[in-house]
Specification:
This protein has six helices and six strands, in the order E-H-E-E-H-E-H-H-E-H-E-H. With about 170 residues, it is α/β, with parallel strands linked by helices. The longest helix is centred in the middle third of the chain and has 12 residues. The protein has a single domain, classed as Rossmann fold, CATH 3.40.50. A six-stranded mixed β-sheet has the order 2-3-1-4-5-6, sandwiched between helices. It is about 35% helix and about 30% strand.
Length: about 170
Amino acid sequence: MKRVIQKKVCLLGDFAVGKTSLVRRFVEDRFDDRYLSTIGVKISRKPVEMADYTLNLLIWDLAGGDDFSQAGASYVRGSVAALIVCDLTRRETLDSFAYYANQMRALNPDAVLIFAGNKADLESERVIDNEALHEISLSLGGHYLDTSAKTGYQVETAFQLLAKKITV
């Protein structure tokens, strides 16, 4: 019987970048066009099968923007990793990567960081290019990839990468 290990991970990013949609796509394999703002935190659980153990991801989907700045420290405490998300159609959401990365690392210096440029399906509206994403994620000590919660593009890949980088 495989051992089961549970780890807390956070989804961080500004309002309306698609954090909740990414979690819903990963955990339930579904997408909803309606925007529902997360208030506080929503916690989901998803097992990820690794070679010799099962990693239970406790995914904390945190409210962005001002809500995060008020309660963020208490929410990220105890987490080992974060998926930090920007909206590829809104440049200012990329500028917040450093803020969320610094908040996470202040409490968890060894935290695994993965950066996701979400809404890759909106190619004609895209204003953030891969070079910018690559540069900022390298400078902040993490990997990046494009995702689309709507189509499912690289959503599983993002969470699998996060899971593989978590040391147990």
